[in-house]
Structure prediction request, 786 residues.
Amino acid sequence: LKGFIAKILIFSILPFLSLFWIVSLENGETDYFYNKISSPRKKSIIFGTSKSEQGIIPSILNGKIEGSDFYNFSFALSISPYGKTYFESIKDKVNYSEPDGIFILTIDPWAVASFKEDEENELIFEETQSFLSTIPSVTINPNIFYLKDFFLKPFFEILLRKFKSGNFVLHDDGWLEVIVSTEPEDRKERVSQRLMEYKKRNENYILSHKRFDYFEKIIIELKNQGKVFIVRLPVEEKFAEYESDYEVQFNYRLNEILVKHKLNYLDFTKGDLEKWSYIDGIHLDRNSAKLITNELSDWILSYH
Amino acid sequence: LAASYLFYGWWDWRFLGLIIASSAVDYWCGLRMSMVDGRQSTADSNSNYTKRSDIELLKKDLSTKRLWSVDNGLLTGKKLYLTISIIFNLGLLAFFKYFNFFIESTTDFINLLGFQANIHTLNIILPVGISFYTFQTLSYSIDVYRGKLEPTKDWVAFFAYVSFFPQLVAGPIERASNLLPQFFQKKNFDYALAMDGLRQILWGLFMKVVIADNCAVFVNQAFTNPETQPASNLLIGAVFFSFQIYGDFAGYSNIAIGTGKLLGFHLMQNFSFPYFSRDIAEFWRRWHISLSTWFRDYLYIPLGGSKGSKILSLRNIFIIFLVSGFWHGANWTFIAWGGINALLFIPLFWFGKNRVNIGIVAQNRILPSFYELGQVLLTFSVVTIAWIFFRSPSLGSAGTYIAHLFSSSILSKPVMDIRVYLFICWVVIFVLLEWMGRREEFAIQKIAFRKPALVRYGLYYGLVMAIFLFARKEQEFIYFQF
Prediction:
């Protein structure tokens, strides 16, 4: 029996090594998130949901703000709204050995909202079903916990990407660049699909005090490590109408936190919303992402 | 036994009660039948009594012991316990698997007659593996009744036999005469058997993860709104489903049998390269063998088998194919699938050709003759068409699928993801490996045995890597739902 087990173990080494080698070839074209949860701890980080993941480009910030080393650690609305799950991941991702970091927290009403029926019950927050609440670490490489259960596609797709590009690239700095058709008809369909999602979300979601509390806890945690900036990214006019339903309560609570912690806030929804281009009404396209990140850099520099 | 119950309870512990109840009923019935047998033999051996008085004595004895009574001078005690076993097990199946089907079909029929009926169905969860373990326990009771098997008094062994975890949820449906005695044998680690088991597990995983799960992607596409797709898509969908269902089910059987070997158990072979069959009769001797032989032994032969007139034999054939279809699921599509297979089988039976092709094709040759190749391809084609009924959600959609399949667009370029060509290559590799190993229990059992170890281990390495690289997330086995 011992010989049998030894033989199996020895035989297993090569396939596992081969698999990890193949996974190491992942260049951000196969999985939206893998490189984010397998990269090391970071000094300066951007937090938020998919709007931030696609809308803020760390390399531009790094180019303009001297000595910074930004990383985009934003995910998606179903994964990284403000709550315990994201808070724990953030603590795991921040490099506490390097002080004077810069942290950008993006926020909108959806990032601090939850199911209408029981919006303060964090046990039913939707991100509790996501990988972020399941995997024990977001800094190990290879992240076998993610690979085992959550990797988006079969691993052969990593090799396939060497011959055929996909429709997105997760860059080394954590920015997700989405490549979609620019045909007006295709865009129209994407927007109408998003509108349906927003409508549904608007009917079923409500602002959660609990989420705001976690947002504040994250700010307190990060302020010990450096400067914190709060940003709200723009959306197309018709989407902004849905968000406006929450506006009074949202602004009131956010303002309380901003004043209490003396934070700087940049709200792009107060400007010209049609100035930017969106791929589906809420996510900025790459050109607008570049423009907005430039504006953001200048704004941060004015306080730096 | 503990491991098996843990395994089953992991899915849903509430249904453990069901499998325990099923085991307990058949264990008890088996013992009771043996007691009736014991009484009968005591009475038979008592020469002081006449046959009539003998029976009177037994009647008294049995009724005081609350076993059962004697009716019209014939012992019915054993029959009673067999009846209890059958009613209980088939009752479980009827309730959990077929209740809603009967309600819906009755409602439809009443509405068809012009009356208004609105009978409510129940939201019933189908317990995993119920069709398999109820048949397994039933076979035990029937064999004990027939006197082919001595009932066991060891309840742990019996309960372990019913719930043996490798084959509990999707077979093979074991016979007590094969599996039960193995629980009494002392198990010593057998290196050669364990290695053979590992190879079989590896092959089973390859069939499931690489072939079945990846074919499923294109099958799902083809079977969703078939009327909107070119026939070439539907052709790929139908052929891929043949490989999906085979890879899925035979893959599971290989994993189960291989796991059994690791533990020192020999489970029965469930598939024997069915897609190399030269006619439909051979196909059914090679496909889901444990179920086919179950129906043969416990339904077809008791009905008279092929002993009576040709008409009676045809009736019996129809019955077992329809019941076999119905066993797979509570839907008319499964019954239609069974009926089609019966229609394909009957001409062979009528002309006495159903046992022509017994051994494996091209037994002593590397390649088949053109005639054999034609036979194999024809059999595969008709089996594939029948599978369309098995896969479709309704008879109507199966009809639509077939109608659109046979159209001029069959020669057009498929409108599918480019990866379809990659998986066609995988299916070809799979068929080649199956062909090379068709004389064995499973394809890679002895492949490359005479080659250097490097070649052999290279093959295993390739299969493991294929499993790693092509695995998809959470793909359940199709046969878990039966």
In short: Chain B has 17 helices and two strands.
